[in-house]
Amino acid sequence: MPAVGRTCWAIAEGHIPGQSHGPEPQMTSHETACILNASSEVAHVTITLYFADRDPVGPYRIEVPAQRTRHVRFNDLDDPEPVPRDTDFASVIESSVPIVVQHSRLDSRQSELALLSTVAFPVD
Q1: What residue numbers bound the domain in which 47 lies?
Q2: I need a surface site. Which of 40, 66, 94, 107 has the fewest CB within 10 A?
Q3: Which residues have a Cβ under 8 Å from the Cβ of 11 and sit 6 or more positions away?
């Protein structure tokens, strides 16, 4: 099978609402990077966050096993520091092998929640 995906992706829009409505953790407002690694090697992935008014933060390091998928909630990223709530950010996701990245957001600040999902922008 030919390589599926790219090694660098960008998500230009990110925001984790500070409030949620409904049972946790299912209805907690969140940002997610859904990562597909269709290769036969482990994907060593780094995420760097960019902000409008401060220096970038990262890298956050994760692994996606070979021929697997992993959904990474930005809410759960805490090393080198927790991702701030109610703050706009963007992210660059780099991998040691080609991957596919899809971006999703659940905004449950009110009971009429909103779900957004889109494929990230392939950089390379």
Answers
A1: 6-122
A2: 40
A3: 33, 90, 91, 93, 101, 103, 120, 121
